[in-house]
Amino acid sequence: MQVEIFCDGACSGNPGIGGYGSIMRCSGKVKELSGAEGITTNNRMEMTAAIAALEALTRPCEVVVTTDSQYLAKGMTEWLAGWVRRGWVNSKKEPVLNRDLWERLLGLSKVHKIRWVWVRGHNGHVENERCDELARAAIEKFKGR
Questions:
Q1: Of 21, 29, 49, 86, whose Cβ has the fewest other Cβ atoms within 10 Å?
Q2: Which of the residues 9, 18, 21, 75 is marked catalytic?
């Protein structure tokens, strides 16, 4: 089964209140996900958006994940293997930030066949813009609690 996932994260302050939004599309069906956290970073919300959607899948799938986060896309396609090989130390010999989330994504990448696609944010990409709206709405909802 082929699934398209679009995801975005946002923060009100960085760190600050963060939100994420994801769209899942498969066989003509669309599902939107969103959520927020109190004190977090934009990068963590970008990652959480992808994790939430991937974890919502009920069986192994072929997935195309589209994100405007170079941190997420490059992390998964270029940096992750080296971090694991070096014991979760980056090229500066410092501990990898957000290791907990990278480990979750690594686990999910063993369940699903994932292709990561980067798109420029705030550039008229319909699904990316919608994910940004979902993330920002989640922040506002969290603030209003």
A1: 29
A2: 9
